[in-house]
Each structure stands twice: as C-alpha cells, then as structure tokens.
Amino acid sequence: MRRWLLPLGPALVLLGLFMVGPILWSVYIAFTNETLTGSASVDSQFIGTANFVRMFGDENFLNSFLLTFVFVIGSAVIGQNTLGLIIALLQRGRSRTTRGVVNGVVIGAWVMPEVVAALCWFSFLSEDGTLNTVLGLEQEWLYTAPMLAVVLANVWRGTAFSMLVYSAALSEVPRDLTEAAAVDGAGARQRLVHVTLPLIRRSILANLMLITLQTLASFGLIYTLTGGGPGNASQTTPLYMYEQAFKYFEIGYGSAIALVLLVIGALFSLVYLRLIRVEE
Amino acid sequence: MGRWAPPIALGVIVAAFLGPFAWVLLASVQPGANLAAEPTWEFSLTNFEAVLTWETTVLPLINSVIISGGTAALTVIVSALAAYPLSRYRLRYKRHFMLTLLFSTGLPVVAILVPVYSMFFRLNLYGSVPAMIVFLSASSLPFAIWLMKNFMDGVPISLEEAAWVDGAGWVQSLTRVVAPLMAPGIAVVGIFVFVGQWGNFFAPLILLDAPEKQPAAMTIFTFFTQYGQVAYGELAAFSIIYTTPAVILYVAVNRYLAGSFNLGGAVKG
User: How high is the ipTM of this complex?
Assistant: First the structure.
C-alpha cells in the first residue's frame, strides 16, 4: 500500500464526499426539475437546459446579477480596496499608538460575526439612528437607498482585509526607491503613482481577486440588514438563489443558480492562482 | 498636502468606523434602550442580566461552541494527518494537489450549500449537527491543510531521524516529535477555523431545523426579527457576549497570521 494513503485518506474522503460530491451533484440537479414539494420531489426528471434558459429570461435573476455586480464593484473593488490602501498609506510613519487605535477599530468591524455587523448597521441607519441624528436628517436609509446601505456596510466590514494586505505590501517597498524619487524632485503624488503602486501591483491584483470572491458570495450581511428588500431592490444573486431554493423549494432551479456562482468563483480563483507565485 | 493632513484624515476614518459601533455599545448598558439612538445618563447591567438565561444565551452559545469546536477539532486532526505526507514525502502530484487546494479556497461555500442540502435531505442527514460539523470541516480543510503544511515545513526533518532510528513509524513520528514542536501552529489552525465558524450564519440557517440546535448567530437573528425594535438593549448585550470570544481569539492568533497577508511575495506551496 502507498505510504501516503493512510494519512491523506481522511482528508481525501471528506473533500470527496462533501466538496467534490456536492459540486458534481449540483451539476446533475441543475438539469432536473427537483423540488421539495409536489410530485417532482418524489421523482425529479431530467429537463435539459430548461433551468438555464429560464434563468436568462428571468427578470428577477437578471436584476440580482446586476445588483451583485454593483455590490462587488461598489463595496469591494472601489470601497474596500481604495479605503484599505488609503488607510495603509496614511499609517506609514505614524506612532505605535495611532496605528494601534486605527487597526483596532477597522479590524474590530471585520472580526465580529456578520449578524452583529448587520445589527450595528441596522440601528446606525434607522430613522432615529446615529447617522440621522449626526446629520440632522430623517431618512429611512434601508428603504430609500438599500443598495447604498449594504455597500457601505460591507465597506465598513471588509476594509480591514485590504488594509492588512496593503500594510504588508507597503512594508516591503524599499525606502531608498521612494527617497531617490524625492531627490529627483517627484512630489508625493508622483512617488505614489510612479514608484509605490507599480511595486505593489501584484498585491493589488491578488487582493482584488480575493475580495471579489468574498463579496460575490456574501449572504448574511445583506440578508440580515435588508432581507434583499424592499421588494428585490437589494436582492443579490446569493439571496435570490436562497429564495428560489429554500423559500420556494425549487432545488433544481436553485442549483442552476448556484452553479453559475460556482463557475464565476472558479474563474476568479483561477486568475488569482495565475497572479501569485507558488514555490516548492 | 500639509503635515497635519494624514493625522486628520485618520481621525475622520476612525470616527466614521466608530459610528456604527456606537449605539450597540451604549445600548447594551442602557436599561430600556430601543432602536432610536437616544442615550440617557442611566447605566446598568440589567440588559446583560435579562439575556443571561438558558434559552436566550446559554444554550445557543453552547451550541456555537459544539459546532465551532467540533469543526475546529476535526479539521485540525484531518489536516495535520494530511499535511504530514505533503510536508515529508516526495509525491508526484503534490504541487497539483496543493494548487487545487488553494483554488478551492476561492469557491463560494454559499453556492455549495444548495446541493449539500439536497444531498442531506435524501440521506436523512438534514437537521443533524454532526453531519453539519463534518461538512463544515470539509469546507475548512483546503485552507487548513495549506496552513498546517507550512507550519510543518518549519519543523526540521533531522529531529525525526532520531525517532526513525529507534524504529518509530510515521504515526509515532507525527504525534511524538512533529506535533509537540508545532503546537503553536496547530493552535493557530484550530483557532482560525473556530473563529471562522463562530460567525457562520448560512450553514445553520440551511442545514438545521430545530431551534434548540441553533447556534448564537441564528438566535440573535431570530431575536432581532422578533424583538429587535423594542428590546434593542438586550439584543446589544447578547451581541456583545457573542462577539467577545471571537475578538479574544483573534487577538491571540493575530501575530501568527500576519504573514498570510503578504500576497505580493511568493506563496510557499
């Protein structure tokens, strides 16, 4: 018997049964009319690509897809990425205490469970909440601007990750390079654009892939904060998948949507693998 | 840009980040607090007393400990076993395997849960806490094996050679020599998985049925939808009790995880 089989065996069995298995299973049921109620729950039938045809003509799905796009671009690519980079840049050369306070607050938002993060934002944005009190407004943010609310909440919650990535990347930028540029007369902005950013571009790209993957699959924060509403105004694809599969028990259709999310995730994950260097 | 611009900007950022925390922290010590952010000068711990009952807090927290702890324990054991040949033996498909693991850390677990639910339903595993723990462990394995192998690579192989001379097999070598030397690494993997599952909301929402099996993440959500408007102070107190272990454990492993944020350098595989 091969000597690696025994120690690797349990991991291979678990990964095979609970990761590879379900993915293959979802490929199968995505082509069936499986439901949990009615006759199709007893014997589901192969219906070909009907679920996918339905999906691309389904206004609610297309709406969810567009909202997911807005959510990923707004909260991850623009929000977390830029804010994380700005905080990491501002922290350079600050005192230990200043960095400790900033890290504590930003990482605190990231470490807390997502249900609690949603709770913080629910009260923050409520009619008599902190935001309206501070700004002197009477907005029902979660009704009038639900997408803005979930985007901001996700920026607040996820910026720590980008900040940590960029702090690590900036600490590796050799000081003499930026100093040499300063001697040559480059201003702060020019040093950033022409020296620092090109040096950390690998980190920027890898970070963009990772936060896109995390944000694409985000469920709990939006579900707790707005429930996808009002109507379907903030119903991103994971929430729509949940509604189809577990509220209307359309497991076949839900799996087809899950499969689309998996394929998009797999594509971004492949790009991520190409970006980082893996050494033996 | 003036000399004072960066500190001022950081001050604004800190204030903006504190905003959403503010009322939850204050409301937890204000008796009779509701959703409206109207602080008073009355402070007490009555909200904490009110929620510290068996059904509201204690049982859900025990469930969270069972689910997160069970997942962490199983993941640590399975990933330590798997890391041993990956770290010590020359295997033909090792690089492919490690790359596949890294690839699968990017897949959305949320999407995998739909077919898992369908499988569990057919196999009569729906509502089973042990079955959910096994699934959560499988989904934590790719990253855990990766981390564990890196920690194991740090243990010099020469230390094992003495044990091999004494006739020890891989089991003794792993449990008596390698594991004790990489105890901090094992703790980091365990805590990392534990904290990740502590906040998990989607898996119990989908895979568990009975309220008495639900972890704190779900009971907070239920409490919130039922009494969130009126008993916000109590909800805030419950949230703080629930968040504290995650924060403490994060602080404990923070130092060891710092290296994993370095995405620009080479990833050791």
Answer: 0.89
